[in-house]
Amino acid sequence: NAGVTQTPKFRVLKTGQSMTLLCAQDMNHEYMYWYRQDPGMGLRLIHYSVGEGTTAKGEVPDGYNVSRLKKQNFLLGLESAAPSQTSVYFCASSYSRTTSRRGEQYFGPGTRLTVT
Amino acid sequence: EDQVTQSPEALRLQEGESSSLNCSYTVSGLRGLFWYRQDPGKGPEFLFTLYSAGEEKEKERLKATLTKKESFLHITAPKPEDSATYLCAVGGGSQGNLIFGKGTKLSVKP
Question: What is the DSSP string of A44-83?
Answer without folding.
Answer: EEEEEESSTT--EE-SS-TT-EEE-SSTTEEEEEESS--G
